[in-house]
Each structure stands twice: as structure tokens, then as C-alpha cells.
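User: What would this chain look like folded?
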Amino acid sequence: MEMETMMREAGLNKYEAACYNALLVGGVLTANDISKRAKVPMGKIYETLTSLKTMGFIEVQNTRPMKYHPIKPKVAFRSFYEKRERERDKELELLKETISRIESASSGHKDQLHEEKLFWTTTMGNEDIMKSYRSSLAEAEREILIIVSERMREEERESYRAVIPFFMDLFREAVSRDVKVRIVDSHTGIKALIEKMISEVEEEREKEKLSRFIEVRDLGSSHDFTLVDDVTTILDLGDPIVKGQIIATIKISDSAFNHRLRERFEDIWSSRSS
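Assistant: Here's the prediction, encoded as C-alpha cells.
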């Protein structure tokens, strides 16, 4: 039974696993013999044996009665795996093409989506907050604007050491799509950490592009927000006791609100260079 269980885990159904295992134990058998040994009803035996032959697990001798012979598991399952792999690749390619068509067909709805009335969601818990940031930044097509306020300062920089590598991966992915990242940092240490990570990138062309597309300025600000393409705003809710600790985020889609934040960001950004 253990062998049959493993076969079912590999993709055979209950009857297929039982019949194939019976043949591995018994060698050359008739359908009647297989039915008895595998405890598969005669009403299902020929359908099951045909399926096993089609998948490449058995061979058939066209005599009366017909006889069946198992192909070695090493050969049969390798072939089975390769076939499933080809089918998976084909399905993924078809899915990719379909998604591309959906994206093209939905491009006309983009303006309408961006002009929707106020919509917001709240996320709590570190894992869900990270997922929210990942999905939001992945939607960026032009620019990501971030302001980190003076309230986020904490001497040990422990929170940044934990999360900056995560955000740097998101920034690198965004830059690969030619999305610019501008960050206003209120002397909390982000600028130095990001510059250090960029300097450690091994591929020179990527390093040069990251240096051009990611800019951080140390400027004082009391604001905290992330703006993605003037479409989505993410507001961090900081822990009132522990500096640098985020306990929740609010994600907002509202064109008028986002426009005001864009103007405020540009005012701060151009106020003075670091």
C-alpha cells in the first residue's frame, strides 16, 4: 500500500496506482488477473489499463485474452515527469499570452481606474504590511515618491537594517522597469544604507542605473507617505511608543488627495539639496 500511496502522490489515481503496482509484483497478467490482484472492478479495469498505456506505464500484447506488462518505474515515471513538465510549460506560456492580451484589453480602463472616488484599505501585521508594499510598488510605471519623517528617527537603526534590504529589492525591480525612486529622508540613516547597498551591486551597468534612478535627499520633514504614480498613497502608522516601528499602513486611492501629496513632496524636494 505504501507503493500505491507514493504513486498516487506522483499523479496516478487510485485505480491506476493499484493496477500498475499489481503488474510490478505479478509481471505479465491478463485484465482479469489484474482486476483480482488490484481489487479494481472489471467495469473499470479496461478504462484504467488504457489510461496506463497512454501515459506510458504499461505495454499491451494483442492476444486473446490480452496480456499486460509493466514498464520499469524508473523509465515510466521519468517519461511521465517529462510529459507533465512539457504540459506545464505549455500551460504557462498560454497563460502568459492570455495575461498579455488581458493587459492590452484593459489599458483603456486605466484612466477610469485612476479617477475612482476615494477608496482605502488598512493593513496590520508586519507580514501583511510587506505584502501590501510589494504589490503597490510592483504597480509603479513611472515614479515612486517616499517621505520619511523626523518621527522615524531611532539611534540604533535596527528597524532599517531589517527592512531596507526588502525595500531595496523592490526598488531594484522597479528600476529594471525604468521607474524612478525619489526619497526624502529626515536624517534617519536611510540615505547611507541605500548608497551602501548600491555600492555593493556587482554588475556595473545595474549599479550605474540604480545610482541614476534612485535619489535620496536628507531634508527635514514631519510627513510620512509613499506615493506611487500619483495613483496610490501609502501612509504608515507608527508605534506611539517605539520609534521607527510601523504597526499599520493605510492605502489610499484618490486623485485629489494624491495630487496634494505630490505638490507637498515637490515643495520639500526642491527646498534645498542635501
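Residues 2-76 form a domain with the Arc Repressor Mutant, subunit A fold (CATH 1.10.10.10). If you want, I can go into more detail on any region.
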